[in-house]
Amino acid sequence: KINSIIDSRTQSMEDALYASGIKGNVAAQIFWLKNRAKDRWSDRTTHEVALELTFANLMKMKKKQGCLDNFLLLSLHHLSKLK
Length: 83
Known about the structure:
This protein has 2 domains: 2-36, no CATH class; 47-83, no CATH class. Helices cover 67% and strands 0% of the residues. The chain has helices at residues 2-22, 26-36, 55-65, 70-82.
């Protein structure tokens, strides 16, 4: 019984949100679109990058960007020799 009450109240809120959006409430419109059309209305963008993490590639990254510390490089070098 409690679940049906919650479902009914949720439906009422959904209806009110939708009606508010139809009447011009921009916040309701944005909320609806971000939740119902996420593929087109999202604040987040994703980028996929494929990179093989070999010791040689890490050394190239270090030379280009200086983004890896020496301890990490040394650790990866030792791990690569264990294989």
